[in-house]
Amino acid sequence: MVSTRTVPNLAFRRLRGQRSAGEFAAAVRRSAREIGEQVACDARYIGRVESGEIRCPNYAYERVFLHMFPGAGLADLGFSPRESVRGRGARSAADSSSPVTTSSTVSAPSAPSESSAPSPPTSPLLGSDTDEECDVLRRVFMTSGSTTMAAASLGLSLGGMAAAVSLPAQRRVGEAEVSAVEKAVRQIRLLDDRHGGDGLYRRASQPLRAAYALLDSGTSTRRATADRLHAGAGELAISVGWLAHDSGRLEDARSHYAEALATARVTGDRALEAHAFCNASFLARDTGRSRESVRAAEAGQRAAQPLGSPRLMALLALREAGGRAGLGDRTGCERALGRAHTAFGRGPSAADPEWMSFFREAELEILEAQCWSALGEWSRAARHARHATRLQDPHFTRNLALYRAELTTDLAWAGLAEEAAATGHQVLDLLDQVRSSRIRTMLAGAVAVLRPLGRGSVEITDFLDRHASAGTKA
Asked: What is the pLDDT along the chain (474 residues), one digit of tens a residue?
């Protein structure tokens, strides 16, 4: 390999001016939202650009930077031409012994618009860089020097359950490696359903790095295998992103969802794109970015429209409803809820994605409850949350705890304090099995509402004392 000397990007540093790297990163994220992009920019990323480690941004960042500095080109921002740093064509010039994948030029995916879904690349180049966050993950594993080393890391041993995957010792990516990625996705989802994200996130990040190392090798000769690997890696990024979301690592979640979206756009995978937008919408809602939540849900619906899955359309409509509720848009929320119920009523379909196994009537009820709670209609929210807890399959332990935490909060705000305390005890019973910062935060919110009422009721006092002794942060 021929090393490339790192040259500091002084032009980009001048553009930052007196702002700190963190302040400038925040400005980048704001500008991205203005044009419908999603980038996980932070101070570390800005430092990597200014140090010259990132010689050319990915397409998403390019659009954001050019939006921030109208009239400037990449060269004006201190970046190198894309063709000099991207793709296997550039690598082959440095190392003629590396395997080369022949492809025509990759066209940049268009940003989401109100009228059309993002345009996928016309001729994807396997192994090309699509997201700067991916670069970090890949380098960690590519230092091993072999695809086999990365593939061997796809074994999981989480939450007392083992699922080590035995892979053949070969460089070429084939059925065994792709199946290992797909198996890792399924196992992470299963463990999350039972245990929540807090204890799983760090360990699940390792198979994600391994999957992108396999993707970066680009040595599969079959297009179908390569497409499955891209889809599997993208789904794994979403699963790990959800674990980050559930465990309160919200910026990590945002980064993983952006990674999955970039992977979807490289291959034109509408199903993966819809899933990434679905989760990104949910994250935006949970972090108070309601308008972004609506836009991501709308983009997800555009991507999902040709897939023929009414249940997927229902879930995306519910994501939109949640965002509109956060904006205080009751009319828009009710319309989205109406579309969700209509689509859900069409029943399951062979086109429903595998990851939607959790989306049953109970989930529809709890998501509607969250809409009404965001609109301040606590009694109505409690009615839907109560129905959700009755419908929920006990197999989904984490969701059962989540639903009861939502019900506890809604009951507390609705003035049904003693019923809220009783439900809160049920949540605490489940937290011995489930580790979820998100659920603990929800329960702490209910405790804050109930605390002023504790002196007047033995039931409420018992719950508050138990909550405090359990070490759950209020």
From this structure: 444 467 889 889 888 888 888 889 888 988 888 887 777 888 888 988 988 888 888 878 888 898 888 888 888 899 988 666 644 334 333 333 333 332 222 233 333 332 233 333 322 222 223 333 333 333 333 333 333 333 444 444 433 333 343 333 445 666 677 777 777 777 776 665 554 545 566 666 777 777 777 777 665 557 777 778 888 888 888 988 888 888 788 888 898 899 889 889 888 999 999 999 999 999 999 899 999 999 999 999 999 999 999 999 999 999 999 999 999 999 999 999 999 999 999 999 999 998 888 899 999 999 999 999 999 999 999 999 999 999 987 777 878 888 999 999 999 999 999 999 999 999 998 887 777 778 888 898 889 999 887 767 888 999 998 888 876 443
CA distances from 285 to 254, 295, 324 (A): 12, 11, 9
Rounded to 10 deg, the angle between the 21-34 and 43-51 helix axes is 100
The tokens of 462 are what?
Answer: 């018992």
Q: How far apart, in whole angstroms, are the C-alpha atoms of residue 66 and residue 207? A: 35
Cβ atoms of 431 and 470 within 8 Å: the answer is yes
Bridge partners, 107 (sequence order): none
Q: For residue 169, count other CB atoms closer than 10 A to its CB.
A: 10
**DSSP secondary structure string for all residues of 415-442:** T-HHHHHHHHHHHHHHTTT---HHHHHH
71's torsion region: left (phi>0), alpha (psi -120 to 50) or beta?
left
Domains of the chain, residue spans: 1-91, 131-268
Q: What is the Cα–Cα distance from 267 to 260, expressed in whole angstroms?
A: 11
Q: Which H or E run contains 163?
A: strand 161-163
Beta bridge partners of 158: 161
DSSP string, 345-396: HT---TTS-GGGGG-SHHHHHHHHHHHHHHTT-HHHHHHHHHHHHHH--TT-
Helix (H) or strand (E) holding 156: strand 156-158
Cβ contacts of 353 within 8 Å, gap of 6 or more: 271, 275, 309, 312
Residue 11, CB-side half-sphere exposure with 13 Å CA sphere = 13
